[in-house]
Write a structure and sequence with these properties.
Elements (H helix, E strand, L loop, with lengths): L6 E2 L20 E2 L18 E6 L3 E5 L9 E2 H5 L4 E4 L15 H15 L5 E4 L10 E5 L13 E6 L10 E4 L7 H15 L24 E3 L11 E3 H9 L9 E6 L5 E2 L3 E8 L5 E8 L2 E7 L4 E4 L5 E11 L4 E10 L3 H4 L23 E5 L2 E4 L15 E3 L6 E3 L6 E4 H8 L23 E7 L4
Parallel strand pairs: 3-7, 3-8, 4-5, 8-10, 14-20
Antiparallel strand pairs: 1-26, 2-26, 4-6, 9-10, 9-26, 11-12, 13-15, 15-18, 16-17, 16-19, 19-20, 21-22, 21-25, 23-24
Helix pairs in contact: 2-3
This protein binds zinc ion.
Length: about 450
């Protein structure tokens, strides 16, 4: 399961600070300027902590305190830089089937971060929140040198904030140091974790392990570089997150649909299968395929592609089953007709489209919903802003009819299959709206820095 570890903790001096004489908050350096002025607190906000993952780049300014609203970062200030042109995330090195577009890659990464935080009251968004709410921003892109760090294998850095006293901070995940979505997603979650009050732990499969590891979750262990925020040498990371941010339960079932082949399709004896899947909170961690009730194989998120071979002629059922970390299961079963000669005859194809695939009418979609962003329609379903994953080719977007998986930022029209049937009877289209947008939050501050570094595999 677990393979590489290639990040290591590099300790002191990287940011040019003096290490503290006494361990403070895990023995990690605090912002030498102390806590931010009280004026920076956003009063009146009473929602969950917001984690804004910035893939778009920004003109960052150095300062004494973090102010993500103004792109002011004390880590950059501590590197004696007054301004940094932080580049947008370059998705190209991360493209791997079925992730084709920038949206696909970002969607897969954000889904994984949402999964890590699904048990915590954190809203993970890629849209910058409004000025009157606090948020922690993780900049994704570039190299450590981009912000004036010397490099040497560092892949991320963030303020270390015991108790999440300050909900408005800026951390970094240096995406140009990677090409693996799991490593990048883990690093984003790790750096955000520091800003929410987590120290490192020495458990290898833990997100807070100082080196990047595969197949991680929060875990617990002893603190290798100082003390945990409670003064002890042990940290259960999820317990700390629950205490600092609040707990959430994921009671929603993940969904899965067949992008290829669609329900009712005619297929050759060799059947390539592509699934699209999502969840209202977190993601499906894996997907299984069953042919006529028998399990064929299983794949981890987001690589839900399979190939069935030598399938006999005639009608078959294909079942896809996905499961999230909370154990919730989603199942979709379709029927396909195998004709070994359909390729030669040119009769392969047909079938319904999955969420995220193009549509002009609702009846083309397995979900029976086609949502438009201007002229572009994709098969859709209701979703929750900032917590739902819409799979590939779609994102959760708002509009007058509610929030739906769509191809762009503003849903202009939603067609339901019930409308088509009603219209064919010359009746009035019944429109439904669903999904509630979420955008909410938490509060307060202090800071130190934790670096995450690449190193030799041990
Ligand atoms: Zn770290």
């Amino acid at each position: 399961m677990t393979h590489l570890l290639f990040l290591s903790w590099l300790g002191l001096g990287i940011l040019g600070f003096q290490p503290p004489q006494a361990a403070q908050c895990g023995g990690i350096r605090v912002n030498p300027n102390g806590p931010a002025p009280a004026a920076r607190f956003k009063s009146g906000y009473n929602g969950p902590q917001i984690l804004y993952i910035n893939f778009d780049g920004a003109q960052l300014k150095g300062g004494a305190f973090d102010d993500p609203h103004q792109n002011v970062s004390w880590i950059i200030g501590s590197n004696s830089l007054s301004e940094v042109d932080f580049p947008p995330f370059d998705h190209e090195p991360y493209v791997a089937a079925p992730l084709v577009t920038r949206e696909d890659v970002i969607g897969a990464i954000v889904g994984m971060v949402r999964d890590y935080y699904a048990a915590v009251d954190v809203v993970v968004t890629t849209t910058r929140p409004p000025d009157d709410v606090p948020y922690t921003m993780i900049m994704v892109g570039g190299h450590p040198q981009t912000i004036g760090d010397p490099g040497g294998g560092e892949v991320g850095v963030a303020p270390f904030d015991c108790g999440n006293g300050n909900p408005s901070q800026i951390g970094y995940a240096f995406a140009a140091e990677f090409s693996d979505i799991e490593y990048l997603a883990t690093t984003i979650a790790h750096e955000a974790g520091h800003s929410f009050g987590l120290a490192h732990v020495d458990m290898e499969h833990a997100i807070m392990y100082p080196m990047v590891t595969s197949d991680p979750y929060w875990g617990e262990g002893s603190v290798p570089d100082g003390k945990a925020c409670d003064g002890s040498s042990h940290q259960n990371s999820l317990d700390v997150l629950h205490s600092n941010l609040g707990a959430q339960t994921d009671g929603s079932k993940p969904w899965v649909q067949f992008a290829d082949p669609g329900d009712g399709a005619t297929v050759p004896a060799r059947i390539p299968i592509t699934l699209r899947a999502g969840d209202a909170r977190g993601i499906p961690l894996d997907a299984k395929i069953f042919l006529d009730g028998e399990e064929w194989g299983s794949k981890p998120w987001p690589f839900f592609t399979f190939t069935l071979v030598n399938v006999s002629s005639g009608t078959h059922t294909l079942r896809a089953q996905v499961q999230d970390r909370a154990g919730n299961i989603g199942i979709t079963t379709i029927t396909v007709y195998v004709d070994p000669d359909c390729t030669a005859k040119g009769t392969c194809g047909g079938g319904l489209n999955a969420i995220g695939e193009p549509c002009t009418r609702a009846s083309q979609c397995e979900s029976g919903v086609c949502a438009f962003t201007g002229a572009a329609g994709v098969c859709s379903e209701a979703c929750q802003l900032d917590t739902s994953s819409c799979g590939w080719g779609a994102r959760c977007s708002g509009g007058p009819e509610g929030t739906f998986c769509a191809a762009g930022n503003q849903v202009t029209e939603v067609l339901h299959i019930s409308d088509e049937y009603l219209m064919s009877c010359a009746a009035t289209g019944a429109r439904s709206s669903a999904g509630a947008g979420l955008m909410l939050l938490g509060l307060v501050m202090a800071a130190a820095v934790i670096l995450r570094k690449t190193g030799k595999r041990k």
